[in-house]
Amino acid sequence: MFAKAFRVKSNTAIKGSDRRKLRADVMAAFPTLGTDQVSVLVPGKEELNIVKLYAHRGDAVTVYVSGGNPILFEVEKNLYPTVYTLWSYPDLLPAFTTWPPVLEKLVGGADLMLPGLVVPPAGLPQVQKGDLCAIALLGNRAPVAVGVAAMSTAEMLTSGLKGRGFSVLHTYQDHLWRSGDKSSPPSLAPLALDPPDLSEEKESVQADPALQGDLRRLTLEGEEENGEVQRMCEEKSLSEASEDPSVRGLNPHPTDSKTLQEQMDELVQRCFLHALKCQVRKADLPLLTSTFLGSHMLSCCPEGRQLDIKKSSYKKLSKFLQHMQQEQIIQVKELSKGVESIVAVDWKHPRKGSILEGGEVRMIIINYVKRNDLVDADNKNLVKLDPILCDCILEKNEQHTVMKLPWDSLLTRSKLKIMYIRSLQTTAHEPDLTRYLYFLEYSHTHLFICLEKLQPVYQVTFPGQEPIVKKGRICPIDITLAQRASNKKVTVVRNLEAYGLDPCSVAAILQQRCQASATVMPAPGAKDSLQVQIQGNQVHHLSRLLLEEYQLPRKHIQGLEKAPKPGKKK
Fold first, then answer.
1. Over the range 505-522, which residues count as b (16 or more CB within 10 Å of their CB) and which as e?
2. Residue 73 and residue 85: Cα distance in Å, rounded?
């Protein structure tokens, strides 16, 4: 409902009679709240405003604001708490849990689909269709969204947890949240509950016997209103609260000699580069700087850390972006008075990428398996697949059947066979090979990696020169023999440029050594590429030049077998 900006109709202070009526409405809507709690939520003397607005779809909404934060909103005479209120009263509503990457979809206006639910050991909360519910992220009980159940818990289970589960009305980071102080959710440990009596559940819900096991293996393969929920490029961050807000979320490592301000500077830059690399596209430009911060940079902040530019040496977003503009990473302009936008990005800037070899990627997988204790206790040759590895490795039809894999299968599956990948020199990496999630560790922080766009690249290095890195797969030097006029034989060489060789220089050397005519001409069907043509079968001379003098690997040259046999005329 508040995924896009709303239009405010009026903002007035509440009257005494309306204040009393609001208290009565709150007690009726949320009977679990005691009288004292209602008095705190709807104070008797503190300023309390009524804001009437229209959502972007035209819905008329009444919002109650206390202490600068929206605490309640009313739609069609139904009262709903905001996330600010739920952070103070996290048990006010039945709470369901989802995966952190789903939050970005909810903020964008999507409903919560049942495949995105995380089923706790105690089972799902018991609700009926139309009940008001809270939505929290795995690992933190603080709600991040408010929604209405689209079906009862029993119907959810009998459906196999498929379909739309909740109509989401309001989320953390939406425009209603932004109208408050924009604080982050507190860190609340999940409640430890005893598992329900399965015998009772069997009596009330006639479900597939394999359902209980299937529920434990659910992943993010949910649906949106118009399709499947796409896997995310990065893990959504929920900042941890601390008694001292100046150091909240930084959690410096005991051996880290950097000051808190230096750590925040580093975090700001990493989130900036990660957002540009993984989230912002050319079609998004021009992009408001405030939108870039709120919708992109904040979502790239690692779990357990809080991005706060005020705690950095930059102090302000505008100053930080000016610094990035001086490094020629972005270009910022004031398209309207007082409103700045990012209008251009250097997508090939050196700070946005480096080379990571395939062997290093395999080591990342091995370290992840060992760090998360996924090696099978009974058979050390097997690896247990958690939801992250399932997403990385398995096909959809294997998700509920394959629970373990041998080490060799884990490391050699086609999705993980790569030569080189691009990786960010920041808190997250964005390799470019297949379309699955990867899990890395950076500075004691776990990060989701999106491999959706990963493409192979190759690197050519010559002594005394900077390495040449290009996208795609390198083509071998191609040597062929062809017949010309009067049945004369010629040797044709292509793809010399890919190996840093100048076709004109190669032609001059061959002409001198072979004492034969050598010409350079455009290669048919290849844009901006040249080929060398030498009269006669000169494969033997080419072989010596390429293998012995230029020391090129034999595997990158094809056609050497066409050299004339000893004793035969060339």
1. ebbeebbeebebebebee
2. 11
